[in-house]
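<instruction>
Derive structure tokens from the sequence

<record> Sequence and structure tokens follow
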Amino acid sequence: MKRIFLFVMALLIIASLAGCGNGSDFQGIIHRVKESSITVVTDDVEPDTSYPVYEVFVDDQTEIKGAVNKLSKLRADQKVEIWVKGEWNKDPENKMVANKIIVSKK
């Protein structure tokens, strides 16, 4: 009985760790769409608080999926998940290039 319990516990731990690390680098709302980039803000906002605006560049290798599949079809106020090449940098001055953008269908 003890072996079965330990086996089940090990499976639960492995299953819970299997999903780790697959999340997006940023989840938020498109603030503005430019010719080769989008500016995004967090979607978890509180009144009377200021939040940074991040500019994320889109290149010919960026995969755009979900409700739209082209940069030209992105619009302000759409909810997005973004994966960047390299690591997400919380400094709005650093250039980040999107690897993948998923647009929520709301």
Observations:
- The mean pLDDT is 82.
- The radius of gyration is 18 Å.
